[in-house]
């Protein structure tokens, strides 16, 4: 009789323990599900912030394009001053929007990013003295950042450095190079237009 009671008590304890284990598993599952949903929201937040960051860069580039455009030079001084004030106001308002997306890097990725940034900075410094040579170097760096076969030579050394960077940094490096290449191309076009106008003015004055 006593032995039967002991067995019954053990079974009751076992059942109780088993129930608690299931309850803990359920709670753990719900918490894990919540964290999974939060992770998706965090990624969506970072993607939205990255999109805003790109939009900010795009707006700044477009404002600069308007400021340096041939159309801006061809209007009268009064209108040009008014449009310059407006564009400067828009530039200031855009710059007041600050977006910061932190990137977690290991020491190797940090070092790679510093190297890549330094290489680009050095080329940018040389653009004023050698626009075409600098543009060709930028194209070679950009070719190292794309997956499709580019029509220009690839800077293999730079490619190895970029591959060692964090994925988010790789995207930013590529985007920076694309912007720089566009800016150099626009600068070259503006120089050619201005030089052509100078030649035309010389011809006109010579004709008189």
UniProtKB/TrEMBL annotation:
Sorted UniProt keywords: Coiled coil
Highest taxon above the source species: Eukaryota
Keyword Coiled coil: yes
Lineage: Eukaryota, Metazoa, Chordata, Craniata, Vertebrata
Stretches of the chain forming a coiled coil according to its record: 28-69, 167-197
Listed name of the protein: BAG domain-containing protein
Ranges where the BAG domain occurs: 112-192
PANTHER family the record matches: BAG FAMILY MOLECULAR CHAPERONE REGULATOR 2
InterPro entries: BAG2 (IPR037689), BAG_domain (IPR003103)
């Amino acid at each position: 009789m006593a032995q039967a009671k002991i067995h019954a008590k053990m079974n009751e304890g076992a059942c109780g323990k088993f129930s608690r284990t299931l309850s803990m598993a359920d709670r753990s599952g719900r918490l894990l599900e919540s964290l999974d949903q939060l992770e998706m929201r965090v990624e969506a937040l970072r993607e939205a912030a990255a999109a805003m960051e790109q939009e900010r860069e795009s707006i700044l580039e477009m404002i600069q394009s308007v400021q340096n455009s041939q159309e801006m030079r061809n209007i009268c001084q009064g209108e040009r001053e008014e449009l310059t004030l407006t564009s400067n106001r828009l530039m200031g308002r855009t710059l007041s929007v600050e977006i910061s997306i932190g990137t977690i890097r290991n020491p190797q990725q940090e070092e790679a990013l510093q190297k890549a940034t330094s290489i680009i900075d050095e080329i940018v410094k040389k653009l004023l003295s050698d626009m075409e040579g600098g543009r060709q170097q930028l194209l070679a760096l950009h070719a190292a950042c794309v997956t499709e076969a580019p029509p220009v030579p690839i800077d293999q050394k730079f490619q190895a450095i970029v591959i060692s960077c964090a994925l988010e940094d790789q995207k930013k490096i590529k985007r920076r190079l694309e912007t720089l290449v566009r800016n150099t191309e626009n600068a070259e076009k503006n120089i050619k237009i201005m030089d052509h106008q100078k030649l035309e003015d010389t011809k006109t004055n010579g004709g008189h």
